[in-house]
Every structure is written in C-alpha cells, then in structure tokens.
Amino acid sequence: MATSDLDGDVLAEALAWQQAGHQVALATVTHTWGSSPRPVGSQLAVRGDSTFRGSVSGGCIEGAVIQEALASLKDGKTRNLEFSVSNEQAWEVGLTCGGTVQVFVEPVA
C-alpha cells in the first residue's frame, strides 16, 4: 500500500512518540466508496494524551476515530470502524454525494 509524504511523516511521528515512552494508536483508511476526503492508506497517529498527527477524513469522523483510538489504548483491542453518509443525507447537509469510509484502528505495541 503506497503512502504519501504526509503519511510517512505520520509514521515517523508515531515511532518517535513510542520511542519517547508514549502510548500510540494508529488508524488507517482501509476502504472507501463514493465521496471520501482521504484515500485508502491515509493514516492518523494518536497519542495517549490525545495529541494526534495525520488525517483519515476530517470533521466528526476524525473526532470519532480519535476517541476509538484512545479507547484501543485502554483496552488493547483493535477496531474496524465504518462511517457512511447516504446520498440523501449528503444532499441535506450540502455535500454533492454520500460515501463510506472504513478505518482500522490498532494500538502500537
């Protein structure tokens, strides 16, 4: 899976945080359908103190992913998340079309 320079920076930052003794979780976009602001392979690193770097979507999805990443640090479990907006819902909030994004969240050991 190819990563952009932004995603390379995310991984480097996550490694630096881990080496400094911080708990770190990594979220990765694994699948998209329809409208999605970030492509498959996009990543978000989340530190135990809620500091984060990168992006998997933006807006309320990003906030939900950060919360799930923090929860994964507490319980040590991975998560497969899916967020969807129907075409009708998208139109109601001023978007041109709906879509689905799947995100895998894992605590980094």
**Which range does the strand content fall in?**
25-35%
Largest sheet: 5 strands, antiparallel
Rounded to an integer, what's the Rg over CA atoms? Answer: 14 Å
Task: Assign the structural class, choosing from mainly alpha, mainly beta, alpha/beta, alpha+beta, or little secondary structure.
Answer: alpha+beta
Morphology call:
globular
Number of strands: 5
Contiguous runs where pLDDT drops below 50 for at least 5 residues: 1-5
Helix coverage percent:
25-40%
Query: What's the number of structural domains?
Result: 1
The SSE string, one letter per element, is HEEEHEHE
Number of helices: 3
Strands ordered across the widest β-sheet: 3-2-1-5-4
The mean pLDDT is 84
What is the straight-line distance between the termini? 21 Å
Describe what this molecule looks like in 3D.
This protein is of the alpha+beta class and about 110 residues long. The chain has one domain (about 5-105). The protein is built from three helices and five strands, in the order H-E-E-E-H-E-H-E. It has helices spanning about 5-20, 60-75, 85-90, and strands at about 25-35, 45, 50-55, 80-85, 100-105. Strand 1 (about 25-35) and strand 2 form a beta hairpin. Residues about 1-5 have low confidence and may be disordered.
List the helices and strands and how they pair.
Blueprint: H1 5-19, E1 24-34, E2 43-47, E3 52-54, H2 59-75, E4 79-85, H3 87-92, E5 99-107
